[in-house]
Amino acid sequence: MTPQTLNTVAIVGAGLVGSGWALVFARGGATVRAFDADPALRARMPGRIRTMLEDMRGAGLVGSVDEALARITVCDTLEEAVGPADYVQESVLERVEVKQAVCAGIDAAMRPEAIVGSSSSGIPASAFTAGLKNRARFLVAHPVNPPHLVPLVELVPAPWTDPEILPVLRAAMEGWGQAPIVVNGEIEGFILNRLQGALLNEAWALYEAGLASAADIDRTVSHGLGLRWAFMGPFETIDLNAPGGIADYSARLAPLYHSIALSRKDPRPWSAEAIARAEKERRETLSADQLEARTDWRNRRLMALVKHLRGQPG
Amino acid sequence: MTPQTLNTVAIVGAGLVGSGWALVFARGGATVRAFDADPALRARMPGRIRTMLEDMRGAGLVGSVDEALARITVCDTLEEAVGPADYVQESVLERVEVKQAVCAGIDAAMRPEAIVGSSSSGIPASAFTAGLKNRARFLVAHPVNPPHLVPLVELVPAPWTDPEILPVLRAAMEGWGQAPIVVNGEIEGFILNRLQGALLNEAWALYEAGLASAADIDRTVSHGLGLRWAFMGPFETIDLNAPGGIADYSARLAPLYHSIALSRKDPRPWSAEAIARAEKERRETLSADQLEARTDWRNRRLMALVKHLRGQPG
């Protein structure tokens, strides 16, 4: 199987993530067949995707809205969606029994050579594919929300996933405009949420100790660390931060970072007091009824940033 | 004292960081008086700053190069530089005995109402200002490298720093175009390097375990987490990642992040084997003789990103 053969993609689960995925595949040129068990979500999907595509066209990220939309068919049954698919993206509720039931349905309806990626953000594929006939064709393909604006996708195989799937799906994801990575094992939180969690855990510990306001901790990232991380990862960043590269940097600074790690050997859960204080601080900056508008602002900022980054030399 | 009174700024230490600071203050409209004990560095400074300013003008970040340069005077003695200064930025070598000696010289030459910020990235102000006559006027003002491209500045007082200095210097830094934060205590690594260290420690642990390549871990940040962190901090990011805001997000996800923290209770130093492997992987992507050119690329990318971010609605 070559990457080019993943021409028809089924979407199972037409919520926000599934709709974002449908847009990604249709924008990338695939024929998309979408299904959701909830008829209301099925009915809502095309309008929702049109709005997202129009926002992206406004930001210069998409050519023709109608052309992309024309590639999407909403189906009335799981079988209609999955039957002809080369690739299936499952994006149902993050509950193991729900994933198990839906994946059993996909397993029964799919072509044996199709590949099935789950949008699971935490549950490993081994927890809901063990008993399936085609279990070697299943893995996790975890996107960032929203998938049509943040391209990273974590491909996480179960122990029984056929390893030949990985380069195929990786190349196909690249072709659709995403940025796939391969995770070699079912570690809790995969890579992205572990990295985010490490930073968040430290941020909460500093905040709980009163060392800085939430706004100042945010600023440390948005006006400091995040500028480099928007176009270079942490390893390339330190590779360029010492004259002799990453080994030179490590020789100088590894002891400091180890000492910092040792100071957090006894991790406590995020404290209820700190959460209540942060909620109060955030609501003074952004009231609860503005959260949705601010999320729209975030999406517009992401679109503008993606547009900017695309124009830059790699 | 009001922020407006910080009109004359002395630079002590004219290396890369000191030169970047001189540019920041001159661009911000201050009169800058620079000194370095090394005559060769003093002689090199104006040309170095001119090159940086020309690069920034090329990126649309600076108007007149000559106007900014005209505000900078290189002085032959510490006294000439520091004597008339309202604010002194010390950027000498990161060694405690060097900082002690230089700060004693600044202490003897300064006006008693001046403020002295040290560029120290790790040594707290209490380690090199304890015996000074004007010790209440000293604190750490830690920039990110390069300070003229990444605006974050950490203001970290010693126990004896006059608290009235903090709002004054914070406002002045804002006026010069930087993004200051206040750290309420001399914690090791301050805020920025603790957040960077938390993420790096997790990245190294994942890499050491073979869970992903360094390139894929980098991609997780540069095509995932870093896109949001380029314009929002970690707290605002999670505030917008659950319908009910940060408290709602925490109720859903704090247990996962605590579980991740518990899996790293026994931190080990970055392993020599992993460092050697990462060095090899990086050098296959970027040979040692390309490091300097890639650093120039990084600076151009930072300039373009800063220019993009300035044009966006906050």
CATH architecture of the largest domain in chain A, by name, is 3-Layer(aba) Sandwich
**Would you tell me the overall average pLDDT of chain A?**
96
Supply the CATH superfamily name of the largest domain in chain A.
NAD(P)-binding Rossmann-like Domain
What is the total domain count of chain A? 2
Major beta sheet, strand line-up of chain A:
3-2-1-4-5-6-7-8
Describe the structure concisely for a colleague:
Chain A has an eight-stranded mixed β-sheet with strand order 3-2-1-4-5-6-7-8, with helices on both faces. The first copy, chain A, is built from 13 helices and eight strands. Chain A is an alpha/beta fold and 314 residues long.
What does this structure look like?
Two copies of one chain form a homodimer. In chain A, α1 crosses α2. The first copy, chain A, starts with 7 loop residues before the first strand and ends with a helix. The model of chain A has no long low-confidence stretch (mean pLDDT 96). The first copy, chain A, folds into two domains: 3-182, 3-Layer(aba) Sandwich (Rossmann fold), CATH 3.40.50.720; 192-310, N-(1-d-carboxylethyl)-l-norvaline Dehydrogenase, domain 2. In chain A, 52% of the residues lie in helices and 12% in strands. With 314 residues, chain A is α/β, with parallel strands linked by helices. In chain A, strands 3-2-1-4-5-6-7-8 form an eight-stranded mixed β-sheet, sandwiched between helices. At the A-B interface, β8, α8, α9, α10 and α11 of A face β8, α8, α9, α10 and α11 of B.
Question: Which tags fit this structure?
Answer:
homodimer, 314 residues, alpha/beta, Rossmann fold, N-(1-d-carboxylethyl)-l-norvaline Dehydrogenase, domain 2, 2 domains, eight-stranded mixed β-sheet, 8 strands, 52% helix
